[in-house]
Design goal:
The protein is of the alpha+beta class. It contains eleven helices and ten strands. A hairpin with a 2-residue loop joins strand 5 and strand 6. Pfam families: FliM, FliMN_C.
């Protein structure tokens, strides 16, 4: 049996209320014995967990950043896009929530089944179109009278933009978005049954002085095959890559063939700038290291060994006599 743990002050207040008659102990027992009933609307079936909704939000936050970069370069004006909300609702409710006349881009996302909708508010769509045609980005809502040229330009604009969706989704699925339809009346677009659960990601969009919403509608049937990848366990798991023996052998061979700069330092000296400027051919610079003292051998600018200079076959050479004590054993 689960219950709350009360502090001593709460217990004292409860006993005081019962003793003074402010609270009836019998009524408390009656309330506890009554079954708690919570209403459930089967038309609004919750098929996605909060964890999965958060994952979808993260994915489309990345998509919003990619869209901001794409439209800023394409339209050459100030563009700001960010995720406003992510909710799961019936498809019928999504259709009712958008304008009666709007821009609806329908995409297939193979290899996943079903289609997704990108709904662009007319204020935003016409501001984009005005910029593409060389205007200042003024919005003009006449979506019911789209000409063939306007339809073609909008199709090209959003067909290229959806390439960013492919990149944003790459962490959970390799999709190939294809623009299959551009519609203006949502009543003529029946993708799924009215009671089918869809996820709607709303993006706040600012283009110049015009603002509006871009809504992405994703039916449950599209996300069903990749639902496990939307859980936090998938995002947080760390898969350790096991290297094949051939890879290790090739890596070791490459390391063995790597060149390392090795130098032997006979000594050093400090002189003033005035002395340096007066140096001439034949001058002798006295080093701080005696002729019989060992010298430091560096590997990649790091001191590693102690050696002594000499000659091998009339060529200058250095003999390693010990490790440099300043380094660690594993180095």
């Amino acid at each position: 049996m689960s219950g709350e743990v009360l502090s001593q002050s709460e217990i004292d207040a409860l006993l005081s209320a019962i003793s003074t008659g402010e609270m009836n102990a019998e009524e408390l027992k009656k309330e506890q014995s009554e079954r708690k009933v919570r209403s459930y609307d089967f038309r609004r079936a919750l098929r996605f967990s909060k964890d999965q909704i958060r994952s979808l939000t993260r994915i489309h936050e990345n998509f919003a950043r990619l869209l901001t970069t794409y439209f800023s370069a394409k339209l050459r004006t100030y563009v700001q896009i960010s995720v406003a909300s992510a909710d799961q609702i019936p498809y019928e409710e999504f259709v009712r929530s958008i304008p009666k006349m709007t821009i609806l881009n329908v995409f297939e996302v193979p290899p996943l089944d079903g289609r997704i909708i990108m709904e662009i508010n007319p204020n935003i769509a016409y501001a984009m179109l005005d910029r593409v045609l060389g205007g200042r980005g003024v919005s003009l809502n006449k979506v019911e009278n789209l000409t063939e040229i306007e339809t073609k330009l909008m199709s090209q604009l959003f067909e290229n933009a959806v390439e960013n969706l492919k990149e944003a989704w790459s962490s959970i699925a390799e999709i190939e978005p294809i623009l299959t339809e551009l519609e203006v009346n949502p009543q003529f677009l029946q993708m799924v049954s009215p009671n089918e659960t869809v996820v709607v990601i709303s993006l706040n969009t600012q283009i110049g002085d015009s603002s509006g919403m871009i809504n992405i509608c994703i039916p449950h049937v599209v996300l069903e095959p990749i639902m496990p990848k939307l859980s936090v366990h998938y995002w947080m798991q760390t898969t350790k890559k096991v290297r094949e023996p051939q890879e290790l052998e090739l890596l070791e061979k490459s390391i063995r063939l790597a060149d390392l700069p090795i130098s032997a330092q006979l000594g050093s000296s400090e002189i003033s700038i005035n002395e340096f400027l007066q140096l001439s051919v034949g001058d002798v610079i006295q080093l701080d290291n005696e002729i019989n003292s060992p010298i430091v051998i560096t590997v990649g600018n790091e001191p590693k060994f102690i050696g002594q200079p000499g000659k091998v076959n009339k060529k200058l050479a250095v003999q390693i006599i010990d490790q440099y004590k300043g380094g660690t054993d594993d180095e």
